[in-house]
Design brief:
The chain is mainly alpha-helical and about 110 residues long. The chain has a single domain, classed as Orthogonal Bundle (Recoverin, domain 1). Helix content is about 50%, strand content about 5%. The protein has 5 helices and 4 strands, in the order E-E-H-H-E-H-H-E-H. It has helices spanning about 25-30, 30-40, 50-65, 80-90, 100-110, and strands at about 5, 15, 50, 95-100. Strands 1-2 form a two-stranded antiparallel sheet. A two-stranded antiparallel sheet has the order 3-4. A hairpin with a 5-residue loop joins strand 1 (about 5) and strand 2 (about 15). Helix 3 crosses helix 4 (about 80-90). The model is unreliable at about 1-20 (pLDDT under 50).
Length: about 110
């Protein structure tokens, strides 16, 4: 899915331009898919993502990219990068990522 943000007269991204979709609209439209991704990552069914579950998901995604014959990524995410990502998603600091925290991370992702 491509989300087009067109610059406004002042140079800021303007999601209201013709042919573009706001991030909120894109999330709403794809909410079932986003929830499915979360549930696939939540291998223990706890309703939360642990660091290990996110690491496993990143490893699987790297393997899939390579299996599909795509060019190998310049470098795989390091454990430190994944830990930083998980820490950034963990808004309440409890050491795990809830679905709402995951959704907020998706919403705050910079599209371009």
């Amino acid at each position: 899915m491509t989300i087009a943000f067109k610059p406004s007269a002042d140079g800021a991204a303007d999601s209201r331009s013709a042919g573009s979709v706001s991030v909120s609209q894109a999330i709403y439209k794809n909410l079932h898919e986003i929830e499915a991704v979360f549930r696939l990552m939540d291998t223990d069914g706890s309703g939360f993502l642990s660091l290990e579950e996110v690491k496993r998901a990143c490893s699987i995604l790297n393997d899939v990219v390579l299996a599909e014959g795509s060019a190998e990524p310049k470098q795989k995410l390091s454990d430190e990068e994944i830990e930083g990502f998980v820490k950034a998603m963990d808004l309440d600091g409890d050491g795990q990522t809830s679905y709402n925290e995951f959704l907020e991370a998706v919403r705050n992702h910079t599209f371009g």
